[in-house]
Amino acid sequence: MAYPDQEKAHLLIADDDPDFAESVKDILEREGYSVWIAKNGRKAVDRVRGDGIQLLILDMGMPVLNGLYVCLELKASGHILPTIIVTAYTDEESGALKLLKSIPTTRIMYKPFNPKVLLAEVRALLEAREEV
Question: Do 51 and 75 touch, CB atoms closer than 8 A?
Fold first, then answer.
């Protein structure tokens, strides 16, 4: 079921796994979202800075810039947006995940996850953003 305001929602998936990114893109587009894919952290930062992105789905382990550095660079440049961090979780990421959990508009999802849970998180973050 697509909600009327979703046609206006522009989402970015930043993940270097093309199969994962395409599958998530398909799920979101079926719900009426406009979706782009960035294959590394630098491309994600550039796309967000280009405006129009309302929500970021961000893999922690990416080439060029990892998920933590993407968040830090976006925050430093004043581009703060709702973000869903996706990760397979490794011990090396635990400190970064704790830091990112402290940001109110950030959610963390562990791979693999249920597509219905992803859609619920996307809706909740977009609705919370509209209320601000």
Answer: no
- The one-letter amino acid code at 67 reads G
Select from 1.20.140.10, 3.40.50.2300, 3.30.450.180, 3.30.70.100 the CATH code of 4-125. Answer: 3.40.50.2300
Q: Which residue has the tokens 């581009």?
A: 79
Alpha-carbon distance of 22 to 115, in angstroms, equals 13
Task: Please give the structure tokens belonging to residue 98.
Answer: 């704790």
**In terms of Cα–Cα distance, which of 90, 35, 32, 89 is closest to 57?**
35
Question: What residue segments make up the domains of the chain, in order of their start?
Answer: 4-125
The residue type found at 113 is F
Report the Cα–Cα distance between both ends of the chain, in Å, rounded.
Answer: 25
Joined together, the tokens standing for residue 35 give: 């979706």
What's the CA angle centered on 56, arms 53 and 61, to 5 degrees? Answer: 140
Tens-place pLDDT, residues 59-99 = 988 889 988 889 889 988 888 899 998 887 665 556 666 66
